[in-house]
Design a protein that fits this description.
CATH topology of the largest domain: Rossmann fold
Strand content: 25-35%
CATH superfamily of the largest domain: P-loop containing nucleotide triphosphate hydrolases
Strand order of the largest sheet: 27-24-26-25-29-30-28-31
Number of strands: 31
Bound molecules: guanosine-5',3'-tetraphosphate
Structural class: alpha+beta
Low-confidence stretches: 45-56
Number of domains: 3
Distance between the termini: 40 Å
Mean pLDDT: 87
Helix content: 25-40%
Length: 525
Amino acid sequence: MGLSDEILRRRTFAIISHPDAGKTTLTEKLLLFGGAIHVAGAVKSNKIKKTATSDWMEIEKQRGISVATSVMGFEYRDFKINILDTPGHQDFAEDTFRTLTAVDSVIIVIDAAKGVETQTRKLMQVCRMRKTPVMVFINKMDREGKDPFDLLDEVEQELQIGVRPLSWPINMGYSFKGVYNIYKEDLNLYTPNKQTVSETIAFKDLNSKELEDYIGAKDAAKLREDLDLVAGVYPDFDREEYLKGEMAPVFFGSALNTFGVKELLDCFVEIAPSPRPVQAQERLVDPQEEAFSGFVFKIHANMDPNHRSCIAFVKVCSGKFERNVNYKHVRQGKMMKFSAPTAFMAQKKETVDEAYAGDIVGLPDTGNFKIGDSLTAGEDIHFKGLPSFSPEMFKYIENADPMKQKQLQKGIDQLMDEGVAQLFVNQFNGRKIIGTVGQLQFEVIQYRLLHEYSAQCRWEPIRLYKACWVESDDPKELDNFKKRKYQYMARDKEGRDVFLADSAYVLQMAQEDFKAIRFHFSSEF
Ligand code: G4P
């Protein structure tokens, strides 16, 4: 198979959801269809159980497991599928944001009883920013949940995206009878079965009397009525709109019962995009270009505490990556070759000789890579990394062991490069502030500084509401702003100006008083 065909058959995506909606279960069922695993229960849930937030062993275990499940590749029909796993715990949302830079599309799982939840809303914001095509799987139809039409309205409003159901449930909970696959025009009757796939019945004419035989007169009437309404209310499915990220096809089912999953997967491989062009600072990079290029979107550090080794995860953006070939580490301006790149098939990690645009390769590293680094066949391309978002929590980080100042500095630098949290340096007093999205990250940082760098840190409180990146077309006005707010000005690790607002009110006042200044809640603008 030629380069072009190899790339076109790739589907690289992430499943995202609020914890407990069924992401792990759905992932596992997709692997089951791909023949990558043979029994349900084989995929370890990579979530840190919410009850054990301070259980360090659990976190270490989690880090171990999640390398194995970071990328799950498998073959299905003629397609090569790469599922990128995202951490379940919301304190690691930043990790998930970054993973979203490496995918070409997304499947969102929603619990039919709970509807759209906070985490889903946040993740969808990132998809919207990047115009990532999304499909929605409404899960747990075997339980009583919200009315399907209400759920669709909720998805449309809360996630600010048009929806188009492509399958439709026949009841739910105890009386759940199955789904009608609008996309393929067939009927799939429900039999709870956690392992195997149920047969579908081709069913083009819904007015046929046979429908009554399968699901009874009452449900047949209701299904016809519902589908009439669907056809009346929602525009026809348009793949272009889906690819532009403006409309989400919706499927209903039950991941636990392997039901409605095949419909989702079959439609997914047909409509989801193959690797999309990636924007670099210099130009748009097309996946079909011969020359290899890629970027680091995730770093897994110090897996083995005895060796300072990391794995840098590289998304191949164009061409073909090959083992033992020299590539350019653009930021460092040096050539490097890799003798043991790994690829991920199902849950196995193995050395590979080549990988194509769309694939993820894991490169063993000893501290050369940072999140966002570009690797190319020679061209100086800088891929745009994911923006940093204003953290939700802030603390001053202080050295608790004066003898270990250097170690602390090194540890902080490396953990920030790895993307564990964000560092801001207050320009007024020089103090370092760490910003995170959750309390757990502070604990992880303290623990890792001690265990990996022998450095001790202490946290001190700081009352902050948001960190905003500021810019202006008027350099004088920016200067004026920075002078007026000098106690609250900081720099992020790239040296950009950041305003630390200690309350929503202060921020609002600043926005009103300084009309020429633009305040951004993410670092990409
Ligand atoms: P997550 O990765 O999104 O956090 O969710 P996960 O797949 O772990 O699923 C969360 C819980 O929901 C699990 O139950 C899982 O079995 C259940 N679940 C997933 N899909 C369905 C479904 O279609 N129907 C029903 N009724 N339940 C579903 P748990 O009790 O938390 O875990 P476990 O002990 O069953 O593994």
